[in-house]
Design goal:
Elements: H1 3-27, H2 30-47, H3 57-88, H4 106-125, H5 128-139, H6 144-151, H7 155-179
Length: 180
């Protein structure tokens, strides 16, 4: 094994859980998150010699994970539009079956599944920059400075993105629960 292969193996071992977790928080599907994580590490392997250490390695990897996750979501949106068109013209629409989490009663499982779905839909409706800043801050616990490095923007821009994301999520969730 070459020294570069050894280095890459260590990088994967150290960062795999973080990358899969990051991808999952964007796509809400474990299999997709693991597939995207593989894409991330392929990109890391291909680009490792170009990593200039201007930021921490984990920040660089995180940036790749966020970008790949957002790319995946964009591809899904295009597929959804195509699927809607197929439905309109009478072609079959394949569906994805998502298993409900194990709960004490079916009612609790249904209620939890509905709550998660409402939150996921609200998150998905945010612009990519707001969603990214919000998830990095609230879900992953990164500081605004770290988020600014990952997103390659200023700290004040991150603060604004997180604030607008929280405000929009609050509006969307209040509207949903007022109607239901």
């Amino acid at each position: 094994m070459t020294p570069q292969d050894e280095q890459f193996k260590r990088i994967v071992a150290e960062h795999q859980d973080m990358v899969v977790g990051t991808c999952y928080r964007f796509v809400f599907n474990r299999e997709d998150a693991e597939d995207i994580a593989q894409e991330v590490f392929v990109e890391v392997y291909r680009s490792l010699d170009r990593f200039r250490e201007e930021s921490k390695l984990s920040t660089w990897i995180y940036r790749i994970a966020v970008t790949k996750s957002l790319d995946h979501l964009r591809r899904l949106k295009r597929k959804k539009r195509f699927s809607s068109l197929k439905r309109m013209i009478g072609a079959e629409d394949p569906t994805v079956n998502i298993a409900a989490p194990a709960k004490e009663t079916p009612e609790e499982a249904l209620e939890d599944t509905e709550r998660v779905q409402v939150l996921q839909e609200a998150l998905q409706s945010l612009p990519d920059s707001q969603k990214t800043a919000f998830l990095l801050s609230k879900q992953d616990g990164y500081s605004n400075q770290e988020i600014a490095e990952i997103m390659q923007t200023s700290v004040s821009a991150v603060e604004s993105l997180v604030h607008r994301a929280k405000k929009k999520l609050q509006e969307l969730l209040e509207e949903y629960y007022r109607r239901h």
